[in-house]
Amino acid sequence: MNTMEHAEKLLSLVEEGTSPFHVAAGVERQLAEAGFQKLSMGQDWSLENAGRYYLVHNGSSLIAFTIGKHFMYGDALRIAAAHTDFPGLRVKPGPEIEKDGYRQLNVEVYGGAILNTWLDRPLSAAGRVALRSDDIFHPEIRYVDFQKPFLTIPNLAIHINKEVNKGVELNRQKDLLPVLGLGGGKKEEGGEFFLEYLAKQLRVEKEDILDYELGLYNTDTGDFLGMSEEFISSPRLDNLTSVQAVTTALIEGERAQGINLAAFFDHEEIGSRTKQGAGSMLLSSVVERILLSFGRGREKFLETFAESMLLSVDVGHALHPNYADKNDPTNKDVLGKGICIKEASAQSYATDSEAVAILQQICDTEKIPYQKFVNRSDGTSGSTLGSIASSFFPVKTVDVGVPLLAMHSSRELMGTADQESLVRAVRAFYSL
Fold this sequence. Notes:
- Helix content is 25%, strand content 27%.
- By secondary structure, the chain is an alpha/beta fold.
- The strands form three sheets. The protein has a nine-stranded mixed sheet with strand order 1-2-3-13-4-14-18-16-17, with helices on both faces. Strands 8-7-10-5-6-9 form a six-stranded antiparallel sheet, sandwiched between helices.
- α1 (3-16) crosses α4 (237-252) and α7 crosses α9.
- The longest helix is centred in the middle third of the chain and has 16 residues, at 237-252.
- The two termini are 19 Å apart.
């Protein structure tokens, strides 16, 4: 694929991946089309050399791996990890609010969203719903995506809020309630207009809806910007750039020895410390089960840490031309100039010189452009799942990703060429 084909593939996943569940489903679709076999944590595994496998965990996390045709004792694992979630707004239980002639939805903020970028946007909702079933311990699970805008959060006019251009702090409970209709709810039915709307979308009775995990998303499509289409402007670039790059690289990577593994975790934006996050035992449990399938016990599992390596693949901060003073004076990432290797002595980025040296040599060998990012000494700029995952799976780890502007906005900006660079870097990691 060329640069534009990689970019188009990314935007296809952005359009499909409107919730972490839909992101995982999009990855699963690509893996199935590439001949990967689905596994379950609740079943025995019969793995074979040259096999290609994946499993979905709790709907929103996924682990996939390929086994080399000459895989033998002592061969290392190459692991690349990304996350399926993104900042936004999540729908609360019993969310209906009806007042002053409007119908609104009670929502809460998920992750570190730039709140004012969610105002005046066309918004929809997607996620999963749990329905009543005959088996109490196995509710029926349905994914839902309304696939059309039906909500918005209107700004207050400047005539009423005359200081708006001096900066306004938004109250998360009061100012972020989206409008989705005009009044006239059926009070005798509890005014459950959203639940009724959801039930209609699912074609079920609203009494059968027990719970849901639904997030709002910006329905804007991704666009190419710039005089030579050198930019991509789109929702959810953090972190679907990494998800798509790792997926493509795993499918295309070729290594006769060892195991290539891709881990897509949920809940990175809220700390990763959940049953489907990078702070769980999911990764180590899957790796141990792979080795057990080949007759290798706990000791052999622990021995794999010695030569294995993890790429924590997540977006980085690009230099903003209007705020160049926010960057480190000697380490500056620019859009379109290649992937960024992220380093922090505080280990908010899980990086050490040995791991960085390996990645640099991979990039040099394949002629892949790269840059380095370090925070200003008087500030911080977030963290990734790398340091968390590597504390549970202690292998050489490096943080890498595409540089981004407007990170955590409802619409972000990246360099078009950087997606291809990231795919090539991860694919080389899986192949050399």
